[in-house]
Amino acid sequence: MSGEGGLSLQQALAALLEVAVRAGVDENRARTEALSLAAALAESAPGAPADWATVFPGATTQDFFDAAVRGRRWRGAPTAVLTELVTAGSPEKIPYAEALAELASASCTLGEPTMRVVGNASVAAAAQLQAAGARPLQVVSTPPPAVAPVGKDETVGDKPLKPEAPAKTVDELLAELDELTGLERVKREVHRQVAVLRVEKLRTEAGLKSPTITRHLVFVGNPGTGKTTVARLVSGIYKALGLLSKGQLVEVDRSELVAGYLGQTATKTAEVVASAAGGVLFIDEAYSLTAGDLGADQYGREAVDTLVKEMEDRRDDLVVIVAGYPEPMAVFIAANPGLASRFRTTIAFDDYSDEELTDILTGLTEGADYELVPEALDRFREILAETPRGQSFGNGRFARNTLEAAIGRHAWRLRDVTAPTTDQLRQILAEDLSDDPPAPEDPAPEDPASEKPETGVGESSDVTDVHEQGVEA
């Protein structure tokens, strides 16, 4: 199962767990998260569940696909553990990101990898490294040696340890928010919330009366509009304001809150909330907890009741952000009086324009250390014009999926090139954005007046019309 010249999943996981132990991360949590990411990257590879199960003793095929569902959110974003290390300024954030990048690469050894798996792994590795501030696609080939924890001024061997990075300020985090593509309404609302909460904190410190302002938020919008990214920034902003003790983001969906039996759901939900204490609990597609007619989903309603109670018990050191489509979220909030009283601020995330999606694709490509040639950008704009827009359209996720597929096709295109140049290794061509092969150029009609000598001058046998290629479903 080991890939040529790289680590097997077992080896990559062992290296990651070494870093996790040094960083003070629970080993079981790091293992579960890492294996979920690996499953999400390799889920389209035939035979991957069996290979994956060799490092997860007793796991079934269903366990593999359940893990893949949990791990999909990290294909284009840092994992929860890495987010916490970055938020805390841990000196292990870059080694951990590098270990995750190596694990993403090792995921390509599961089963019979498809071109999609190669693209998934490349984008996921870049996302982890970027989040930690590491050089794009810089991975470690061997696990770093374990060392005992030492103080800031002590050394390992003859190399002094780097001092712990200072936590980001509110202004730095707001600047990161402002740099995001699009989302103008979201940026204005977050800035407004920060101003209100800052003044409330100052009034409290000055001994003045201040109304209790609900910090919990509702994010509404179609998929891929940046809700998770903004939630991660909000968690850091609240931490910088002194409103949260840790500032970590714990992202969950219905499957991680609801158990198989009544009574177990309350315990499961309470445990998830406890893991988010001191930070932000982000519940995606939260309306799925109350879907159906009254009483049709007792498990989801048990989770909501527990959530409301936990929000009250932990109101001083927990922020909950719920997200989903606009109409279902309105029904969700109205389903429980406790929810309606705690979620008073709704932030709407608009769909991205074609130009914004092109900017997003360009940024993702550069982050993965690839380059889109101008013809490829033109082809992407054509694909956008041909793609229907509705609730199922993925917005930023569409751009990421396009890049993942293009990276896979790029690798396939170079399969027979023995020694590709650096430009060949980096450049994404227009033909990489489509599943269909380039269409041959139609022969020009014969024109006696324009006949040329049989020297080939002025002829072109390898020009293709990429604009006639099909679009991936």
Q: Could you name the key traits of this structure?
A:
single chain, 473 residues, alpha/beta, 5-stranded parallel sheet, two-stranded antiparallel sheet, 18 helices, 9 strands, disordered N terminus, disordered C terminus
Describe it for me?
The protein is of the alpha/beta class and 473 residues long. 48% of the residues lie in helices and 7% in strands. It is built from 18 helices and nine strands. It has helices spanning 9-22, 27-42, 48-53, 61-71, 80-87, 93-106, 115-132, 170-179, 184-205, 227-240, 264-276, 298-313, 326-334, 337-342, 354-367, 374-386, 396-413, 422-426, and strands at 155-156, 159-160, 217-221, 249-252, 280-284, 319-324, 345-349, 371-372, 427-428. The strands form three sheets. Strands 4-5-6-3-7 form a five-stranded parallel β-sheet. A two-stranded antiparallel ribbon has the order 1-2. A two-stranded parallel sheet has the order 8-9. A hairpin with a 2-residue loop joins strand 1 and strand 2 (159-160).
Summarize the structure.
This protein is an alpha/beta fold and 473 residues long.
**Which sequence of strands runs across the widest sheet?**
4-5-6-3-7
Number of helices: 18
Structural class: alpha/beta
Poorly predicted segments:
1-5, 137-164, 438-473
> How many beta-strand elements?
9
Q: For the report, how would you describe the main beta sheet?
A: 5 strands, parallel
Strand content: 5-15%
